[in-house]
Design goal:
The chain has 169 residues and is mainly alpha-helical. It has 7 helices and 2 strands. It is globular and about 50 Å long. The two termini are 15 Å apart.
């Protein structure tokens, strides 16, 4: 949501490997192997490993900056740190707290504000609060309908395959 409040084009670097895996192609295996040739351990997250592999194969765009998170796995943060190193572009890791308490929420809030300052500096523009409000309204509406769709998927027989829900979410 925050990125959509700026005048930028976003690219989710894990997309090529995830979409390829859904279709059962050999493409995903190839991009994982490309990352492993760089010394990335076999055991690391396949989505993040695929982000590196597709970049190394020239099948992802050149980044202007990199944002990553420490969630859902630490390998995400480490692989994006490596991509930032080899591309020479600035990066920011949105660090997710482990606990569900006031201190964790305060920490996360400070980290989000740090990300906004990073984006404003790197993009040389201010966040558009009106755009962010519209984006959040759209996301909330979308989540409502995705939840409804998920509930419909519980019907027996189900009116849709699970792949539709996986891609939608």
């Amino acid at each position: 949501e925050i990125l959509r409040a700026f005048d930028v084009i976003t690219f989710v670097a894990e997309s090529p490997s995830l979409v390829a895996s859904f279709h059962g192609t050999d493409y995903a295996t190839g991009i994982f192997q490309e990352a492993e040739k760089e010394g990335i351990p076999l055991e690391l997250c396949s989505g993040s490993k695929g982000a590196l592999g597709s970049y190394l194969l020239g099948q992802s765009p050149e980044p202007d900056l990199i944002l990553s998170t420490s969630h859902p796995c630490d390998s995400t943060a480490s692989i994006y740190q490596y991509i930032s190193y080899i591309t020479g572009v600035p990066s920011f890791v949105l660090d997710s707290p482990y606990w569900d308490d006031k201190e964790s929420y305060d920490y996360y809030e400070k980290n989000y504000w740090g990300m906004v300052r990073f984006l404003e500096k790197q993009l040389n523009q201010k966040i558009d609060w009106d755009r962010l409000k519209k984006v959040c309204e759209t996301v909330n509406s979308t989540n409502y309908y995705l939840t409804e769709l998920t509930e419909l998927g519980r019907a027996v027989p189900s009116p849709m395959g699970i792949m539709m829900l996986l891609i939608a979410w």
